[in-house]
Amino acid sequence: MTDENVKIVTIAGILGDQQAALVGQTCFEPGEAKNTYSTGCFLLMNTGTRKVDSKSGLLTTVGYKFGGEPVHYALEGSIAITGALVQWVRDNLGLIQKSSDIEALARTVDDNGGVYFVPAFSGLYAPYWKDSARGVITGLTRYANKGHIARAALEATAFQTRDVLEAMEMDSTIKLDRLRLDGGMVADDLLMQFQADTLDRPVGRPETKDATTALRAAYAAGLAVGYFKDLKDLRSNWAVDHTWNPNLKNGKRDEMYKLWKRAVARSFDWIN
Predict the structure, then answer these.
(1) Which of 107, 148, 163, 165 could form a disulfide with 113 if both were Cys (CB 3.0 to 4.6 A apart)?
(2) Which ranges in the chain belong to alpha helices (H)?
(3) In the predicted structure, residue 211 carries a pLDDT above the cut 70
(4) pTM for this one?
């Protein structure tokens, strides 16, 4: 509904939330992918003009279409609980006063102490799609403390992201070079470093860190009306604030991910 006194305004671009983030992160080439870290995580990978039907628990979606050019498709994977897990640690366990405190608490320990946290509070989304799963914390010993739980909570976001990206690579047969990041959780340097470690590839945080969907939809509109000349012009508007490179030995990475997958399996079928 609009006010009758408002002048007619041309609508030059319309993008969905996560598609806008894909465009905003200038993921215009097949295999380029972004992850938005919010209450949940939302990953999209550009598959180009090739529509890839997922066999690995992902969604096939339209990424974007600019003017008369062909449609570019994407694979999409949604994770239900990531930032919401930090809120749960804050509100339900009372281990931190505010969400940003979790990084400092997690840094009080050198590693997760063998603790893994699968936040399947209402089931698991991509790539598992297990509505009967429920949250589990595994690997507890008398050695474990609140720092290990905080660290396991952060690492759960990175592990779930790896689950989805491996499914994307399997479906698309494209090897991801790096992951582009946005959303509130990208301010957590410890999480971002572990994300690079568990993926074994660089991850990059842009100067515009928040998931500013409206701005990124404006990119598409600006392209449509000629404010931006082309995709190269849009890319020049995007800049990296910081890049994290992997810094974890392969044996340790494989061992941790194997234990994560074992913990995920423990969460299955708690509800009949």
Answers:
(1) 148
(2) 17-24, 83-91, 101-106, 146-172, 189-199, 213-224, 231-236, 250-267
(3) no
(4) 0.91
